[in-house]
Amino acid sequence: MSESPFAQVGPILFEKGYSPIPIMPGNKVPGLMVGDEWRMFKGWNEFCVERPSQFQINQWAKWQDAGVGIACGRGLICIDIDQEEIIEPLLAILPVSYVQKKGRKGISLFYQGNTDAIRSKNYRTPDRVGLVDLLAEGKQTVLPPSIHPDTGEPYYWWTDETLLDVGLAALNELPNDIADQIGEVLRAFGYDPDGDRAADPAGSDHPDTLSSHTSNFFRKLNEDALARIEAWAPKLKLPKGRFLGRVYRAVAPWRASGSGRAMSRRSANLSISPGGVEDFGTGESFTALNVVMKTLQIPDSELDAAVQWLGGCLAYDFSPNITLTMGPKTLAILAEREARERGEEPPVRSAVEEALTPPPHPEWHPTPTPAVAERPTGGDLTAYAAAQPSAPAAAPAEATVGLVEEEEVNAPATPPAPSMAELEALCRGIPGLVGELVEWMACSSSSPSRPCALGPALLWVGTIAGRHQAGPTDLRTNLNVVTLAPPGYGKDHARQALYRLATKTGLFRFMAPENFLSDSALRKTIEQNPVMMSMMDEFGGFIGKIMDRRAGAHQSNLRHMILQLFTTSNSVYTGAAAAQEQATPIHQPCFSIYGTTTPHDFWPSMSGRGVGDGFLPRWLVLPISGKPLLDQPVTQPYQPPDRIVEASRAVFKLSRRGANLPDMASQPVVNPIVAEWGEDGFEAFRWYRGHFAKCSEEASEDSKVLWTRSIEIMLRIGHIVAIGINPERPMLTDELVDWAGRLTELSTKSCIVEMKDRLASNDKQAEYLFVRRLIKEAGQAGITTVALKQQINGLFDNARYESIIKQLQDANQVSGRMGTGPRGGRPTFRYYAAA
């Protein structure tokens, strides 16, 4: 397989100090490869102000057929001339360009310059024919040897010198007024500097008031606004607004979230940079005036009010030679503002004027209050609780005949069971190595299941980075995951795929045995290698042995050891001494377990004991339901792809900063790589911490404990994915924390639902729950007495059966009545679960 264009030149460009970026094959736009699928690269223009990392360059170089582009900005400018006849006149005024490239037509010239003063600009004729593109900050251009999408041939260098040879400092420099000089030359080719406009000022049909303005005024207003973003963007109080270098990022409040998120949970996809304004969530571009009008909810008919506001922020002096035609609403708005500034009561608006005022946006209102009310800046959860909107009062229940037991009135509601669609959605589009692993393991099977692949993917990355990576709260990367799936779901495929990957990468030493018969066997394994992961099939049987009250000391102690290894991963596990064996301290053990079993085997084995002592809360539980996909086309190779092999080795080596010495249980890792909070990541962490605490308060007494470790599990998951994105500098961003939080909440809620249906503290309660579950699983059609007894299959005698049925009916959990089956037919007596 030949190297991609990016692999050929991207690393060299990076060494020269440039910002190379991957380009989608057969296209001119930046792209990301997720699995085997190319997607639009949202946020690529951040590399115009900050270079990518070495790890990102290495990853992009592994993507098949990736083209190569270069992000302009940071002093790099490209002049892209579209028309052949324009080349000579422009070369007459431009400095000599030592580096030039060609594609299908025209030519591109590379220079250095002051990109704070020289801004990107498109030169067009009145008929929108492209003449020249001045590419500065916020823009990119495709480089050789990428393939041109129109010709199918590679771009090529037109000069002997290339950007691979010439650094930025060696390029000729452009003067600050180069944009005006180019405009004057292009007059002869149909360009009208006075008639040119960057974009429609209001983004729609222009109202009559626009006729008195020159387009040159709007062009200058928008250009000045992009040159002085700090003068107006923060004043809009956009949600999550903050500067990243010279780029201002925020949430676009005028549109709803594509995924249905609340405003506080949305990503800051609106980018306001000197190169322009773009919403990465929709791909739309705006002018500064567009943003002001949309944010402040100013209709097109009141364009002048937006001009006044933006011009005021930029210290414009609206002298009489600029006539602004104002309608009555605009005049009323300005009159109210002036009255308030004088300390007077604003004039009373008529009913007609009030009726013409547009209603506020239903989702977001620009007010001086913090944009994220549910994420207070203080650490006290009381502040969080106060920031939450009060719950709507419950509608009064209809009068019922008979007594209602107090327990039923006051019992906390059980959360709805998470759907399979929710879990499947969370397993798609995961960034970095974890996502690559999930796609490969799922799509290399004819019965693909991403949820079955998620657990092994998380544990693999967490293990090969183990001990040498620490989260921002000093949590480590060990994690326990159990996947609960019906029989025939192909749970073994992902496990065997991971064994093949461990063999191919040369990292099989991190794979622990599939079972342990005693605590001493586990301790000796960890003493030899403190970083290991064990993948256990038929995990319900293992849980049953270590949870059994009649189990021997070796098996009972095994449960306690697993508990302690999980919590001492950032300190030391001292263990317990025996008569024939001395305890040996194990520093920073990173031991993880991935188990697969069926729900019917897992929950009866777990018992209430595993909940009460904190064993179950330390697990991420992935519940899979429904029928598996069968006979699907296999789209990934059976053997691990080279890019995944190399990415795994990179995580292993870069986490250890290049060292290849084996981990020793007797010696701690003194200086691990500490993950940082990325954009709004800490605020997301605080929100989920309060959210989980509130869930715990509202939960029943027996399920409160399940929320105690949720925030810890969430941070471990997010940290592992961040390592797979960039092991040299992992960052927990808002998006990562939010994804991990939703996955953890799904796990916890599913445990609460299953506990109520399946978890028993003794044998009699287990029989009771078993019968109730059989009736519940029959659904709306109910179940006949004969069918119910057939499924019980002699597990207990008839007297016990009758006793359980009576208890269920007395508790209003089941009812018996005449009814027909799912296919109709003669009515028979059936049992139905309560709604």
UniProtKB/TrEMBL annotation:
<feature type="region of interest" description="Disordered">
    <location>
        <begin position="339"/>
        <end position="377"/>
    </location>
</feature>
<dbReference type="Pfam" id="PF09250">
    <property type="entry name" value="Prim-Pol"/>
</dbReference>
<feature type="domain" description="DNA primase/polymerase bifunctional N-terminal">
    <location>
        <begin position="12"/>
        <end position="178"/>
    </location>
</feature>
<dbReference type="InterPro" id="IPR015330">
    <property type="entry name" value="DNA_primase/pol_bifunc_N"/>
</dbReference>
<feature type="compositionally biased region" description="Pro residues">
    <location>
        <begin position="357"/>
        <end position="369"/>
    </location>
</feature>
<protein>
    <recommendedName>
        <fullName>DNA primase/polymerase bifunctional N-terminal domain-containing protein</fullName>
    </recommendedName>
</protein>
